[in-house]
Design a protein that fits this description.
264 residues; mainly alpha; 10 helices; 78% helix
C-alpha cells in the first residue's frame, strides 16, 4: 500500500509544484483578481463529490480485475492436471504434447498482458486446445474431457473480460467534467487573493494536490491491466500467472509422471 501511494505522489507532486510556481508569479505580478467566496468552496465540494462517484465506479471493476489473473492461472493449472493424469496413466504422446502446449499457452497469455500477442491470437490458441481434447478421447473418460472444456470456456471469458476492461473507460463524459472542473478550481486557487500569502500557498497546495491526486488515481484504477505502457504498482498483480509459468518451465512431462507411493 505504501508503494501504491508513493508512485502516485511522485507523479502528482511535479504538477502541484508548477501550480505553486504559477501562484507565486501571479501574486507578485498583482494578477490575483478573485476573492474568497462561498460559491468557490461549493465548487470544490461538488468536484470532490464527483470524484467519489467515479472512484466508486472504477473500484468495482478493479476488485473484479484483481481476481482475473488468479482465475486464468487456476484454469490453466486445472487443464494441466487433467492432462498430467492422462500422461501418468497412458504415457501417450498426445498427453505429452498437451503438457508442452499448456506451457506455451501460459507464456503467451503472460506476454499478452504486455502486448506481445494480440487478443485474437490468444483466443486462437485457446481454441486449438480442442485438437488435444479430441486426441484425449480414446485415452480417458468423457467427464475428464468435459472438465477441461469447462476450464477452456473459463479461459475465454477471462481473456474477453480483461480485454474489455483495459480497452474501455468508465463514463468518459464524467472524466471530462472532472478534469475540466479540476483545472478550473486550480486556476481559481491561483487567481484568488488571501490576506496572508503563506496561507494562500498552503491552501493552493493542499486543494490542488487533493484534486490532481484523485484524478490520477481514478485514471490508474480505470485500467489495472496497463502493464504494457507503464510499470506501476496500481496494475493488477500477475504473480499467479508468473508462479505457474515458473512451475511449468521447471518440470518436464517425465518428472510430472513420477508416481508418488500411496500410504495407508
Amino acid at each position: 500500500m505504501k508503494a501504491f501511494r508513493s508512485s502516485l505522489i511522485v507523479r502528482v507532486l511535479p504538477i502541484v509544484c508548477v501550480v505553486l510556481v504559477l501562484k507565486i508569479c501571479v501574486h507578485y505580478a498583482g494578477w490575483e483578481v478573485l476573492t474568497v467566496n462561498p460559491l468557490f468552496s461549493g465548487i470544490i465540494a461538488a468536484n470532490v463529490f464527483l470524484m467519489g462517484f467515479l472512484i466508486s465506479g472504477v473500484l468495482t471493476d478493479y476488485k473484479e480485475s484483481e481476481k482475473l489473473p488468479t482465475e486464468l492461472a487456476c484454469s490453466l493449472e486445472t487443464i494441466r492436471d487433467e492432462i498430467q493424469i492422462i500422461y501418468k496413466n497412458k504415457k501417450a504422446k498426445p498427453a505429452e504434447q498437451g503438457l508442452e502446449y499448456i506451457k506455451e499457452l501460459t507464456a503467451a497469455i503472460h506476454g499478452w498482458f504486455y502486448r506481445k500477442h494480440r487478443t485474437y491470437e490468444i483466443q486462437d490458441m485457446i481454441h486449438d486446445l480442442n485438437d488435444y481434447f479430441l486426441a484425449f478421447e480414446p485415452l480417458t473418460q468423457a467427464n475428464f474431457i468435459v472438465r477441461m472444456k469447462q476450464e477452456q470456456s473459463a479461459l475465454r471469458r477471462a481473456i474477453a473480460r480483461i480485454d474489455t476492461i483495459r480497452d474501455t473507460s468508465f463514463v468518459g463524459s464524467a472524466y471530462a467534467i472532472a478534469e475540466a472542473t479540476t483545472v478550473l478550481v486550480t486556476a481559481g486557487l491561483v487567481l484568488t487573493q488571501l490576506e496572508h500569502f503563506h496561507e494562500a500557498l498552503f491552501f493552493t497546495f493542499v486543494i490542488s494536490f487533493l484534486l490532481i491526486y484523485l484524478v490520477s488515481l481514478i485514471k490508474r484504477l480505470d485500467n489495472p491491466f496497463d502493464h504494457y505502457a507503464v510499470a506501476a504498482s496500481e496494475n493488477v498483480s500477475l504473480k499467479p500467472l508468473e508462479d505457474l509459468l515458473v512451475d511449468l518451465k521447471s518440470k518436464s512431462p517425465e518428472s510430472e509422471a513420477t508416481q508418488i507411493p500411496l500410504t495407508t
